[in-house]
Design brief:
32% helix, 11 helices, five-stranded parallel β-sheet, seven-stranded parallel β-sheet, 319 residues, Rossmann fold, alpha/beta, single chain
Length: 319
């Protein structure tokens, strides 16, 4: 592809902000049209409407109206594993391929889940703030924390990332249990079919399920109450999987002990109430945000596009 003239390069849309390395590599291969995520799809200039591919972050995705505004669109390359912001049914109906970037981010997301678990249970962020504020030097004593070792750790969604989290915690956990829509094959952990039973039996819930409509508000007020006042929840999945209002209320009333959150329902907006809670650890959606993983994700986006335009099968199809 490097030998093509500019005119021969397939036109593509970079939908919303991407990643500098990916931007550079797309520019080398394609005629790139940058389109803001909040642009009016009906007002796109003619040259943009000829795009054959669209590349976007998972948090931007591809709604039906942008697909309809690009009549020549053949493939959507997602720079994420999650595809809940893509209208997959619409893409399927229009014969548009959708690819994502699974596997390459599994280890880094699992590492962050474990980090958030320890940070939340051991009050790491609150204690850091106590030291920085001078409170410790003035004689303030932090409260005693919970402990991770020996706790019953419930994994909600035992897919690739859920399994990687479970493997990291096998030595520390008193028990690892999990809840899926159906029992996983070859999993050495205890399956709990009922979500409320699963929450009751867990000291910690780590949310690792995929997003999408079927998982929306899967963790609701009833499940949080079943987790109970000593329970902690960690979410590295999608903000939509937890009923955020119910979570804020449960934390405010101390009906659960704490939360470690990398994702939120309306990113980058975080409920105001969470910002002042010292039993909550907050991250700006950093699960895959390591230099190593972001490059690997970008390379997989590019490999899918290269394969498509060479007439070969894509590597990681969603549709």
């Amino acid at each position: 592809m490097g030998g093509m003239t500019h005119a021969e390069r397939p036109p593509i849309v970079a939908y919303g902000p991407l990643y500098p390395y990916l931007d550079d590599e797309l520019e080398r291969r394609f005629t790139v049209h940058a389109v803001a995520a909040d642009a009016d799809p009906a007002a796109l200039p003619p040259a943009v409407r000829d795009a054959r591919a669209l590349v976007s972050f998972g948090s931007v995705g591809a709604p039906a109206d942008i697909m309809d505004a690009l009549p020549g669109l053949e493939i959507i390359g997602l720079f994420s594993v999650g595809y809940d912001k893509v209208d997959v049914d619409h893409a399927r109906m229009k014969g548009i391929r959708v690819t994502n970037t699974p596997d390459v981010l599994t280890d880094d997301v699992a590492d962050l889940a474990v980090g958030l678990l320890y940070a939340t249970v051991r009050n790491i962020a609150a204690n850091d703030a106590l030291v920085r504020s001078g409170g410790w030097a003035r004689g303030e004593k932090p409260p005693l924390s919970g402990r991770v070792t020996g706790s019953r750790i419930g994994i909600l969604g035992l897919g690739r990332i859920g399994r990687a989290i479970a493997e990291r915690l096998e030595r520390q956990a008193g028990e690892i249990l999990y809840h899926n829509r159906r029992q996983a094959q070859d999993a050495p952990y205890r399956y709990v079919a009922d979500p409320l039973d699963f929450a009751r039996q867990s000291d910690v819930i780590i949310v690792a399920t995929s997003g999408g409509p079927e998982a929306a508000k899967l963790v609701d007020a009833a499940m949080l109450d079943a987790l109970g006042p000593q329970g902690v929840i960690v979410n590295i999945s999608r903000g939509s999987v937890i009923d955020e209002e119910a979570l804020v209320a449960a934390l405010a009333d101390r009906r659960i002990a704490g939360a470690g959150l990398d994702v939120f329902a309306h990113e980058p907006h975080v409920p105001e109430a969470l910002l002042t809670m010292d039993h909550v650890v907050l991250q700006p959606h950093q699960g895959s945000a390591t230099v190593h993983t972001r490059k690997a994700m970008a390379d997989l986006v590019l490999a899918n596009l290269d394969a498509w335009f060479a007439g070969k099968p894509v590597l990681t199809p969603v549709v």
